[in-house]
Amino acid sequence: MKRLLTLFSGLCLGLSVMAQGWKANYDGVMLQGFYWDSFQDTKWTNLTQQAKELSEYFSLVWLPQSAKARADKSMGYDDYYWFTNYNSSFGTETELLNLIQTFKANGIGAIADVVINHRATNVNWFDFPTEVYNGTTYAMSSTDVARNDDKGKALTAATAQGVQLAANNDSGEDWDGMRDLDHNSLNVQTTVKAYLKMLKEKFGYAGFRYDMVKGYAGKFTAMYNTDVQPEFSVGEYFDGDINKVRAWIDATKTNGVPTSAAFDFPIRYKVRDAVNNGNWNALDQEGLAKETDYKRYAVTFVENHDTEDRGGNSKHDPIRKDTLAANAYILAMPGTPSIFLKHWMACKADIKNMILARKMMGITNTSAATKYGSGADYYAFTTTGNNGKMLTVVGPAKTYNSTARWVKLMGGKNWAYYVDKNEKELVWASLPSGTYEGEQKAVLTLISNNANAKMVYTTDGAEPTTNSPQAANGQSVAIPVGETVLKVGMVVDGVVKNVVTRHYQVSNFQPYTIKVYVNADEADATWSTAQMTATNPTINFWVWGGSHKTVKGEWPGDAVTTTEEAEGKKWFVQTYDILNSNDGVNFVFNVGDKKSQTVDIENVKETSFIKISSDKDGTKYRVNVVPAGIEAVVSVPTKATDPYYYTLSGQRLMKPTQRGIYIHNGKKIMIK
Question: Is the pLDDT of residue 670 over 50?
Fold first, then answer.
């Protein structure tokens, strides 16, 4: 009997460990693989093609709700089918299964977006679909709807139809939109458990992102996770109050252990305040990732589909500037960082390097972060990873590059990573692996307190030896057109160690033309002469950067009166030639005086629509920059033949192997 009890106890312990929500000492980074209305960029086939590249940087990819929703075009939050129809706005069930299997083969776990707070109905208030899966029928009815749903409107509808609602009120916050489910209902619990098991077992999802967990008690997340045993679980407790988010994590405990992580909204709001208001001291405030008992369960982020600026009246709560500095902050912090797809697509090389630095230093979700210094214009902290200590500085004011201790690893506008050379020996190549246009260069950095240490490298994929070419600290190595495998190592006492490897595919650059559209109709009266309602509308373009400069050569720049119709309205428009891979255009717009100038818009390389708003960043007007669709971005190159193919979402490929519609040499073509 004693042996049986011991075995049973061990079995229970095993289940508890599996249900602990998020692994300890976890070094993975997650990609949010969608944004609002990302129907092209998030197509299952599109993501499948990127699996190999993504796997070098991300261990998890969070996918949108993947079943057919009520609306024909939907992000899935009006979830309707759970078991039987997986032909969604992102692709077919077969394509989804292939995506998740391809991810798994490349070491990526797929995270399902699980919407169980509410559920859509078809025509009337309570007609949920009846579905059969593995021989079992799953059906919900009015008695599965929380009694106080929609602030009593559901009860009114039920009375009118002569049906009953659940006896229980909602166990969380009410949401006026769809039917809030009563998670005290045994039928709801049975159906949810079966649904989650199907996502895990049939589709192969590694874990769940629970939507809108404010809407039902945390104990139900504990119930579902304990039953289904996902590898990963994270809840969207949409609140900046750290006490409330902590309380939700605690509410998911089984046997005293949390079964779910939570998105670190408290830190997200501190990052927003720091960068939007130019007060970097705001980062010296609370967050899950800063707390010893909760950082393991902190999924940090700086933007998502709910906070991004969607344009029009959907401004939401975006990070308005210093996006890279914001990402540099969370990628150096404990917790598990979640990177927004738009940021990944726009700033891929920088974010790749940030992730590589995190992995190289062995930073995990339970690493220690310690404040190093701060002020209104900077915040600095150290993170102690499994492989050493890294110093992160964000904000414009402070640098540690001249100290005897810290050596700069990389950096950009308002952010930098440093390594303690007395603690860690390493080499670094500044250009991350990837596909590039035009000859590139990789700057090599040696970090060591050994005066006799040297760097050696190869560009043919061979392992460096003591006889390989040497590189001085800070030396650039040319990466020519073609395929190159760069390997860089450190030589100490006749031994080569700490070798890093980069893979490059470089093609000839094809010059192209972009258009920049500008509209000030949403700005205040200061911009009245630049609004399309003016008698003779005009605006000034102050331009610099790359091969571009203002023709006039002095402030306020060139007056532009040319307009075009696009996206259903009139815009000022100018064209620019992008002549090489490093070319880009920087802008400031004004109406002829410094009082009206916008913030800087930097490194524009594709056709874009720029709206000037009435909001200000200090004395300068903010802007909203929206890259155009593929039809506008891809212009006829100056050379007769463009070797690239472009997906309808703008991804550039060599000749694709997947079936589909592509843009090639300025025309739509079908590859069968």
Answer: no
